[in-house]
Write a structure and sequence with these properties.
Length: 107
């Protein structure tokens, strides 16, 4: 099982965590929503739950709950800037299809 970060994503998370001044790392999960079934949920991890799995990549901890892990296992998280827009992008080998707007996916 693995979650990876590109250097750009790792740097962005380190910057967010430093400016926030607290927390364990990045929390990655999924929720059922959208026209294709699932959407990524990204937030700060302030504590660990009993069923959380922690991946450490480039001095950044990525926390994933066990239920979400089956949908995001093997995912690479990138951070991209396009003009004035910036966002985390997910390269998830489990995805079979995405909605037209890119907000949700199915496995």
């Amino acid at each position: 099982m693995s979650i990876s970060l590109t250097p750009a994503a790792a740097e962005r998370v380190r910057t967010f965590m430093a400016s926030r001044g607290m927390g364990i790392g990045l929390r990655l999960g999924v929720k059922q929503t959208g026209c294709s079934g699932f959407a990524y949920v990204v937030s700060y991890a302030d504590e660990l739950g009993a069923r959380d799995v922690v991946f450490e990549v480039a001095d950044v901890k990525v926390v994933v709950d066990a239920e979400s892990l089956k949908y995001v296992d093997g995912t690479e998280i990138d951070f991209v800037r396009q003009g004035l827009n910036e966002a985390f992008k997910f390269r998830n080998p489990n995805v079979k299809g995405e909605c037209g707007c890119g907000e949700s996916f199915n496995v």
